[in-house]
């Protein structure tokens, strides 16, 4: 569960045309949104074992990012956990275990949703790591499917859903849903709310210092 949370990193909104495709919405987001904040709810569904119903876990919290390589997930329910990328190191703080795991950010992110959204300045750069295609419109959302080119990671695919908002004079699209499928058949759906585009965020917002007394594991 905690390892899977590391792959569930994505964000906010973009400016686009009402009739734009998912790819155009993604392209506009990557170009125009440099910082962002949102509340999120995450629902993780594990594959059902024979004779059993699928296990479903729900969590929620706050997310913020600063392009190109800083982001922060603060999980508050049902347990407290923090994931911070400060540009060099990816930190995972498990409060219940009083444990901090530190990994080199460049080696960990790779073809993840975080890399998909927070690391590139244009769609062409993303295509080095992902095959990007428009997906059929569903539930009133415009979708883009991102499939990692590398077959060695845990990530199988990511679907990003944008909802068209505004009128003809003020058209925009909002990134509303993120669906992540891993190679074990586990699915995570993140829904974003109360999104803020390009708010001023200090670099210190992405600083992390292990609490005194916490076990520190470097990988």
Question: What does the model show?
Answer:
- With 219 residues, the protein is mostly beta strands.
- Helix content is 14%, strand content 46%.
- It has helices at residues 2-5, 22-32, 105-109, 113-118, 123-126; strands spanning 35-45, 56-66, 70-77, 81-85, 89-94, 99-104, 130-138, 141-148, 155-165, 172-182, 187-197, 215-218.
- Strands 7-8-9-10-11-1-2-3-4-5-6-12 form a twelve-stranded mixed β-sheet.
- Strand 3 (70-77) and strand 4 form a beta hairpin.
- The relative contact order is 0.25.
- The model is unreliable at 4-19 and 167-171 (pLDDT under 50).
Structural category: mainly beta
Give the biggest beta sheet: 12 strands, mixed
- Which stretches are poorly predicted, pLDDT < 50 over at least 5 residues? 4-19, 167-171
Oligomer: single chain
Strand order of the largest sheet: 7-8-9-10-11-1-2-3-4-5-6-12
Percent of residues in beta strands?
over 45%
Compute the number of strand runs. Answer: 12
Order of helices and strands: HHEEEEEEHHHEEEEEE
Helical region count?
5
Mean pLDDT: 81
Euclidean distance between termini CA atoms:
18 Å
How much helicity do the residues have?
A: 10-25%
Over all CA atoms, what is the radius of gyration?
A: 17 Å
Question: What form results from the Cα inertia axes?
Answer: globular
């Amino acid at each position: 569960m905690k390892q899977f949370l590391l792959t569930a990193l994505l964000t906010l909104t973009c400016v686009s045309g009402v009739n734009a495709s998912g790819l155009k919405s993604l392209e506009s987001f990557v170009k125009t949104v440099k910082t962002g904040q949102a509340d999120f709810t995450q629902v993780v569904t594990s594959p059902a074992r024979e004779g059993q119903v699928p296990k479903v876990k729900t969590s929620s919290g706050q997310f913020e990012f600063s392009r190109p390589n800083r982001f922060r997930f603060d999980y508050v329910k049902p347990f407290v956990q923090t994931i911070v990328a400060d540009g060099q190191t990816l930190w995972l703080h498990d409060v219940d275990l009083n444990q901090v795991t530190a990994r080199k950010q460049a080696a960990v992110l790779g073809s993840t949703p975080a890399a998909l959204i927070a690391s590139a300045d244009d769609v062409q750069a993303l295509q080095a790591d992902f095959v990007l295609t428009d997906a059929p419109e569903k539930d009133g959302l415009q979708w883009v499917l991102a499939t990692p080119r590398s077959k060695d990671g845990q990530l199988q695919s990511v679907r990003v859903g944008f909802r068209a908002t505004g009128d003809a004079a003020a058209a925009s699209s909002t990134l509303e849903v993120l669906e992540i499928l891993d190679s074990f058949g586990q699915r995570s759906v993140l829904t974003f709310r109360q999104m803020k585009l390009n708010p001023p965020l200090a670099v210190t917002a992405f600083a992390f210092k292990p609490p005194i007394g916490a076990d520190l594991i470097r990988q």
